[in-house]
Each structure stands twice: as structure tokens, then as C-alpha cells.
User: Which sequence fits this backbone?
């Protein structure tokens, strides 16, 4: 069961330091209590999620924000891994990438990304987009119940 | 974001909803949108699948860009409609927003596992309901990149 005053845990998988910093700033301004974990490459992300799934599924993130162009293992591979795993499949994954390529958009949705968002180049717009993600996913949407 | 606004074709939304009051509120909420959208409404799960597979009366419809799906539907249940959409190669990329009165954890978990794009429970209050419809519209039509047509 999710308690209403529980902090929402967000996992950000992103290698660009500037984008990480802006995301952190935007999320800290949000009305809803949240905690952010940042991982910098796809391999690290898969390892982290596997460990939590096997050892402590209760603390799996409530929401994943995933970049596509990541070092070592690509974001689409991370997405496939999450969505093909019985326990992890329920985690909402918001793809947030510089790509606006139709092929990437199609692939991400067919691998069951929950939504695909192209990063605006302008930093103020970037912060607005993060705020919109926060508002929509944390206050409008019902997130999946946490694993026992 | 600006790319979406310049899109000339209207965003095609399919609402699957058997409650006429809720359908009307959704219509009102979407009408005020700044973005050009076209809303089509079907009232049970069977019609929804006929629409999506372009069968019977729905031979000439456009494939929707976004689906708003209620769960408790006559004939074919919303969960089944969702499962069929997400298993179908042509349809599975279409974002499906579950919009339902159910707040049951079982429904939330099950629909996310069936690859619903997001789950929203309908507020009872009318103004809140319209606000939620507008949030859906704002997020999915202006922030998100929908799959290419």
C-alpha cells in the first residue's frame, strides 16, 4: 500500500550532467515529496534494478525517467529489460531524450515506454517539461502499488 | 513542444466510455483545448475493438493517436480491450490512458502489467473531472511525442 505522505522515489537514468542538474532542480521545486536516484549508464541501471528486484522489491522506484543515448548499454535495451521482466514491467518509464526520430519514438512505444518526451533545447523549457512530468505522474496518475 | 503545435492534422482521440455523463464531461474538457483534436466515442468494449480493427460500421475510421479507456464496460471488459491492443503489432504503440472509477490496487497493478500507458482514477467531483481531462490533454498532446501516424 502507498501511504499518501510517502515520498515518491524517482530513478533518473541520464549521463548528461547538465540535464541531471536541471532535473534535480525542477523536481525539488515540486509540490510532491520525492527522492531522486541518478544512474549514469544502461549497464549500471540494469544491475541496480536487478539487485532491488531480487533483494528488496519494496524499494523499487515509483517512476523511471530514461534517456536513450546512454553509455555501455543503450536506453532502448534498458527499456526492453524493464518491460520484459515480470516484476519490473509495471514500473512507469518516461523516455526523455534529445531524439525526435520517428523510428526511436515508434520503437520506444512498441517496447512499452509509458510516454516519450523530447528534451527541449532551451533550459527554461526543459525545467517546464520536468515540472509537467512531475505534476502529471505524481499528482494526476495513480502509480502502481509497491511490491511486497 | 513547438513541433506538436505546428502539426496540421488533428490529434485523433478515441474515448471508450459507457457512462454518458462522463463522456460528455470528457468532451467538454477537450473542447477547450488549444490543440486541434477530434474525439470519437464508443460505448462498449466490443465496439472499441471493432473500431480499432476497422470492422463493420467502422471500416473508414482513422486509427486513433490516443485512447482513453474505461475499465468496467459492457460486452467486452476494458482489461480485455487493453490486453488485445497491447498484443497487436499495429495497435500496441498507441498510448492507452486508463480512466476509471476503480481505485482497486489489483486493477492498477494488472493494467500497468498489461502495458497501460497510465492509470487515472476519475474524480467524483465534476470540476475535478474536467481538470483531469485537461491535464491528460495537456500532457499527452503538448508535452509528449505521440507515435508517428
Assistant:
Amino acid at each position: 500500500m502507498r501511504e499518501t505522505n510517502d515520498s515518491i522515489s524517482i530513478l533518473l537514468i541520464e549521463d548528461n550532467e547538465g540535464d541531471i542538474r536541471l532535473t534535480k532542480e525542477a523536481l525539488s521545486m515540486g509540490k510532491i515529496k520525492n527522492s531522486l536516484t541518478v544512474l549514469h549508464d544502461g549497464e549500471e541501471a540494469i544491475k541496480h534494478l536487478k539487485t532491488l528486484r531480487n533483494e528488496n522489491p519494496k524499494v523499487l522506484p515509483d517512476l523511471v525517467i530514461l534517456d536513450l543515448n546512454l553509455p555501455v548499454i543503450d536506453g532502448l535495451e534498458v527499456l526492453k529489460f524493464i518491460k520484459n521482466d515480470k516484476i519490473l514491467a509495471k514500473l512507469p518509464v518516461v523516455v526523455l531524450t534529445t531524439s525526435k526520430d520517428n523510428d526511436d519514438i515508434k520503437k520506444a512505444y512498441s517496447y512499452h515506454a509509458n510516454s516519450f518526451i523530447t528534451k527541449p533545447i532551451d533550459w527554461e523549457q526543459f525545467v517546464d517539461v520536468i515540472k509537467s512530468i512531475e505534476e502529471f505522474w505524481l499528482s494526476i496518475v495513480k502509480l502502481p502499488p509497491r511490491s511486497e | 513542444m513547438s513541433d506538436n503545435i505546428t502539426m496540421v492534422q488533428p490529434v485523433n482521440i478515441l474515448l471508450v466510455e459507457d457512462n454518458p455523463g462522463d463522456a460528455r464531461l470528457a468532451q467538454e474538457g477537450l473542447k477547450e483545448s488549444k490543440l486541434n483534436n477530434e474525439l470519437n466515442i464508443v460505448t462498449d468494449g466490443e465496439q472499441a475493438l471493432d473500431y480499432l480493427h476497422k470492422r463493420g460500421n467502422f471500416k473508414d475510421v482513422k486509427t486513433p493517436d490516443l485512447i482513453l479507456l474505461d475499465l468496467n464496460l459492457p460486452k467486452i471488459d476494458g482489461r480485455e480491450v487493453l490486453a488485445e491492443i497491447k498484443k497487436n503489432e499495429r495497435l500496441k504503440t498507441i498510448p492507452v490512458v486508463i480512466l476509471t472509477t476503480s481505485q482497486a490496487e489489483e486493477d492498477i497493478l494488472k493494467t500497468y502489467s498489461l502495458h497501460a500507458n497510465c492509470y487515472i482514477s476519475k474524480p467524483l467531483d465534476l470540476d475535478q473531472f474536467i481538470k483531469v481531462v485537461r491535464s491528460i490533454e495537456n500532457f499527452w498532446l503538448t508535452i509528449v511525442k505521440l507515435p508517428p501516424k
Q: What stands out?
A: The mean pLDDT of chain B is 93. Chain B touches chain A through 31 residues (CB under 8 Å). The two ends of chain B are 17 Å apart (CA to CA).
